[in-house]
Design a protein that fits this description.
Length: 431
């Protein structure tokens, strides 16, 4: 049996194990171990099993994962998301659809401290949905804006998706963070225009709220000092080159503790819950990394990545890009965004290098298309996460609500492809 055939069989077995609900990291570790055993022998397989977990666990750069996760959890438990919503409501709530726009604004701000799209959507459901229902908003608009806004946590750095892409593609995580800022903001602005159009067509979906004076709006901005402090520390430090992404994560987590104490909101229970949630998320991510770096040597031995390079060697770069867009859109319908990248990025990196892509720009494009799959029917995982928190809302209604936001993301993807400087301006300025 040829190595390529063994590789294809291994990938099929891996997918079967996924659908049997075996944890993804364990499934990849198992297939990688058995695959290396079959091709290179049992001693090499045991060497893989012994060395990979150690290397993954002791890689200094990856300590930024628990640090940024902890910062996001602390921001949630200290009520920074509620502060964001309150301020955004005073500025946007008086428009038709203003509370849905407020949800997008809150999601954008919260995305600057929370790196996971599902966590972002779940948080916005708890914070924003009760207020929108109180103001008689249609559930389709409310839940659609929550799901659409949730994916901004995967675009606005510090994004767990950018961290994983940077690790797997051997690209600078700090540069990827900076590249995601403008595309994330652009997506949020297109969302707001989409909501404006929806409520222009049918005002009953999002009635206008009370109008606040300019003095009340300006005074409300003082409540954002905690969030602004975190953003300055994290992005100001990384952008200036004064601190590394890992150091930014540590300083950001420490600053989140200080903010919580200063606002007198950080209880012992909230602190312990933030630690527990961070440990659970970090454990899941590191198990994925162990699986990915166990599966990658098996793929290398099968020469599947090399075969992909040969097969795509006659393709124009735009055709390779089209393949990337279609593949990640379909994959995003089925798999969690991080899981999808862990499985596929090591396979595709040689093909992308052969096509001559800039990996920073490509990382932004991949993140956009993967996020689109996360809330698109029929299997948008963000939608089902929100549905689990709102049992009285049919899943069909939530999918109906997200449909108008799909063209918004497609427009953003098209703009980033046609005008790469949307993603590359800040990284080029910083270099």
């Amino acid at each position: 049996m040829s190595p390529v055939t063994m590789g294809i069989i291994g990938i099929v077995i891996l997918l079967v194990l996924f659908f049997m609900e075996l944890p993804v990291g364990i499934a990849m570790l198992l297939v990688g171990f058995v695959g290396v055993w079959c091709i290179a022998g049992l001693p090499q397989a045991f060497h893989l099993l012994c060395s990979v977990p150690y290397k993954v666990s002791f890689e200094y750069l990856w300590s930024l994962i628990p640090l940024f996760v902890f910062m996001g959890q602390l921001s949630y438990y200290t009520g920074l998301s509620t502060d964001l919503f309150s301020v955004a409501f005073k500025w946007l709530g008086h428009f038709r659809g203003g509370m849905a726009m407020t949800t997008i604004g809150t999601s954008t701000g919260f995305g600057a401290v929370c790196g996971d799209n599902i966590a972002g959507a779940v948080t916005m459901t708890a914070v924003c949905l009760p207020e929108m229902r109180k103001h008689k908003y249609a559930d389709t608009l409310s839940l659609g804006s929550i799901c659409a806004g949730g994916i901004l946590s995967f675009l606005i750095p510090p994004s767990l998706g950018f961290i994983m892409f940077g690790i797997l593609a051997d690209e600078s995580i700090g540069t990827l963070f900076i590249a995601g800022i403008f595309p994330g903001i652009l997506t949020a602005l297109i969302y707001i225009v989409t909501i404006f159009i929806i409520c222009r067509i049918d005002p009953k979906k999002g009635p206008a709220g009370p109008k606040f004076s300019w003095r009340e709006r300006i005074v409300s901005l003082k409540n954002l000092w905690g969030m602004v402090l975190l953003v300055i520390i994290v992005f100001g430090g990384i952008y200036s080159g004064f601190i590394s992404p890992t150091e930014a994560g540590a300083l950001g987590a420490f600053a989140a503790i200080i903010v919580g104490l200063a606002k007198r909101r950080l209880t012992w229970k909230g602190f312990s819950d933030a630690i527990l949630s961070s440990v659970e998320t970090t454990g899941m991510v590191f198990l994925l990394l162990v699986g990915a770096f166990s599966f990658a040597p098996f793929l290398s031995l099968t020469r599947i990545p090399a075969v992909l390079v040969v097969l795509s060697s006659g393709w124009a770069p735009w055709l390779v890009l089209l393949f990337v867009l279609v593949f990640y859109f379909v994959g995003g319908l089925i798999f969690d965004s991080v899981v999808l990248m862990v499985i596929t990025v090591p396979i595709f990196v040689p093909m992308w290098m052969a096509a001559g892509f800039n990996f920073v720009w490509l990382g932004v494009v991949v993140m956009l298309i993967v996020c689109l799959g996360a809330f698109t029917p029929p299997v948008g995982l963000v939608v089902y996460a929100v549905s689990g928190m709102v049992p009285d809302a049919p899943v069909s209604d939530i999918f109906k609500g997200v449909l108008p936001f799909i063209p918004a993301v497609l427009v953003c993807i098209a703009l980033v492809i046609v005008f790469p400087q949307i993603a590359m301006f800040l990284p080029n300025l910083a270099s």
